[in-house]
Write a structure and sequence with these properties.
Length: 339
């Protein structure tokens, strides 16, 4: 009788777990928020703070046009809409928290005017200043400005106060990310020197400026879209090549310390359309809280002629003995029992 009772309880637990399993299955499809509106958070990043995941991204205006004056590449653009923020506790259901950083429509000279470009925003928390610090790529419409912008807030949802933009370490800053290490040091990683070289720049104590210490990496390799993470003492960086809004093959690199030396290792994606990175481009990698060595890689599937309809691909990273893999999956469980 007791054996039968135990079997019944085990079966009940198994059925309940299966029923409540969260399955991520909207790869490349429209992602609705909790109110049913389409999530507009491109080139984004995640901050985990006090039990909540915050997603920050580019809020793209709803009409896309080609800037005919730019002759060297297909400069498709949408008006900048600011930086949006969504929150979630399960990575599946995202609530729109409003604009973390708003555009400044009344001042045509502002970096935050809708006619400018605000890309790849990332937010980290500074436990000493108790400020949330946002870094982003600030551009002129023709992508010649190549500045990094910085904003700070007292709350993860903002509103963020814009501090301004500049060329960090005196050089271009285009695609970028921010990485905060376990020791509290934070780094800006950015494509520089007309995208030829990837800079890793240690930030100052309050994370709002470069410290002046930086390294130049992948010289002449033209890598962009950096996404950095750390596992078991090794630093990893996923990057794309430079082909405008069109996809290309993602590579990953490793280093023993953030300031290098970084070594390009090879391709990271496998499966259907791996060599075009599943028709997408890297933007961020985050660790799943409470799960050992579990990381999710975020990609943008750009739709260059309708930029606000660009889609999202999120996939788990698999660690092998000597390599990393991001395998194509139509769906996977955010309970991290891979399908
Ligand atoms: C590729 C970058 O990764 C994107 O963030 C964006 O800047 C496009 N280029 C513009 O073509």
């Amino acid at each position: 009788m007791r054996g039968f009772f135990c079997l019944f309880v085990s079966l009940f637990i198994l059925v309940s777990c299966t029923k409540h399993q969260n399955v991520m299955k909207l790869q490349g499809d429209v992602w609705p928020d909790t109110k049913g509106n389409v999530i507009n958070a491109h080139g984004g990043g995640i901050l985990y703070h006090k039990g909540v995941y915050y997603l920050y991204g580019e809020f793209k205006g709803d009409s896309t046009y080609l800037l005919e004056s730019v002759k060297t590449w297909e400069c498709w653009r949408a008006d900048a809409g600011g930086v949006s923020c969504y929150s979630s506790t399960d990575l599946m259901n995202w609530t729109f928290e409003g604009m973390a950083l708003s555009v400044v429509s009344e001042d045509t000279t502002s970096d935050l005017h809708p006619s400018q470009v605000i890309e790849r925003p990332k937010v980290i928390y500074n436990r000493y200043t108790k400020k949330f610090v946002m870094w982003m790529h600030i551009e002129s419409p023709d992508y010649e400005k190549a500045h990094a912008g910085v904003a700070i807030a007292d709350s993860p949802t903002g509103p963020f106060t814009y501090l301004g933009s500049f060329k960090p370490n005196g050089q271009d800053s285009r695609d970028q990310t921010i990485f905060k290490d376990d020791d509290g040091r934070a780094y800006q990683v950015y494509s520089s020197e007309w995208n030829k070289t990837m800079y890793v720049s240690l930030l100052n104590g309050d994370y709002t400026k470069p410290s002046g210490i930086f390294t130049r990496n992948f010289e002449g390799e033209y890598r962009e879209a950096p996404a950095v993470f750390k596992s078991k003492g090794t630093y990893y960086m996923i990057t794309s090549g430079c082909s405008g809004w069109d996809p290309n093959v993602a590579l990953y690199a490793t280093a023993d310390s953030m300031l290098g030396e970084w070594t390009l290792k090879g391709k990271i994606c496998t499966g259907k359309d791996a060599d075009s990175t599943f028709y997408a481009q890297s933007t961020f990698v985050f660790p799943v809280t409470g799960k050992k060595q579990t990381f999710v890689a975020m990609f943008d599937r750009w739709n260059k002629t309708d930029l606000d309809d660009s889609r999202y691909i999120w996939l788990p990273i698999t660690f092998h003995r000597d390599s990393l893999e991001i395998a194509w999956k139509e769906e996977w469980s955010t309970d991290f029992k891979m399908n």
